[in-house]
UniProtKB/TrEMBL annotation:
Recorded superkingdom: Bacteria
InterPro entries in the cross-refs: Metallo-B-lactamas, NDM-1-like, RibonucZ/Hydroxyglut_hydro
PANTHER family for this protein: ACYL-COENZYME A THIOESTERASE MBLAC2, METALLO-BETA-LACTAMASE DOMAIN-CONTAINING
Membrane-spanning intervals of the chain: none
Pfam families documented for this protein: Lactamase_B
Domain Metallo-beta-lactamase: 22-234
Name of the protein in its database record: Metallo-beta-lactamase domain-containing protein
Gene3D superfamilies on file: Ribonuclease Z/Hydroxyacylglutathione hydrolase-like
Amino acid sequence: MTDWFAVEPIAPRTWLIAEPGHVNCFLVEGDDRAVLVDTGLGIGDIGSAVAAVTDRPVLAVNTHSHSDHRGGNRFFTDVAAHPSALDTLAQEVPPAQLRDYLAVAREQLRAYDRMRADDRRFFHLFTRTTEPRPLPPDADEWRVPGGPAARPLADRERIDLGGRELTVLYTPGHSPDSVCLLDEGSGLFFAGDTLITGDFWAHTPDTDLAAFAGTLRWLADDVAGAVSHVFPAHTLRYRVGPDFLRRAADGFADVVSGRSVGEPGADLLGRSVLRHEFGDFTVLRPVS
Ligand SMILES: [Zn+2]
């Protein structure tokens, strides 16, 4: 067990299990069992990190099939996801994709080393929970195998944890297999990549910009009233208020209608995109 994961209580019986600078996973515990929302990169043993927090049986739910949300599935026996994610989850992530990601992760660490002293002197934004960690010593051996077989989750399905319930909401847009999880009793909304306090990825081949805008409008209109905290899967700002649902929906509406004019730029992997800046978040979309 390395200190790759940052674990922090964020609400009663609810924890952030983060790979700081990479992925935010969340553990939600009931009386009978717990749900882990996303399993991260799979470069560290998230099974041990979770077992150190809860002794309940754990269901791992992938918010979608992108590799950084299912990398640690192999540490669990009980996995669930949207039906259209299941084929991808059964396959290994191509090793070349992981090598490319590692190169960017090392670049990110060098960036953090350069800025750490300035942050401690001037800004005080990094905390123990959010400071990026050195890569595990065996990072070059990183593999993400397929499986275990995931069971399908239905839209509006309620996952009973014992005295606590999570509702599955189908939220296509970022990917066709995206879901969010709502803990209505506590007002907690686990957003996956459907809400991001940084770059919204709406430029990859499996993104549907119009569907993404429609999902965000629906969340703002029909779900935000039940939400007190939103927990996105990326960036160091892992908790935002429900107003973010409306602002994200408005931003996407401006992108779809052409009211927002994007600027040429790049995503974190260096691929060309159009960037639509909205102050505390950005919508990335394809150049063409
Ligand atoms: Zn994604």
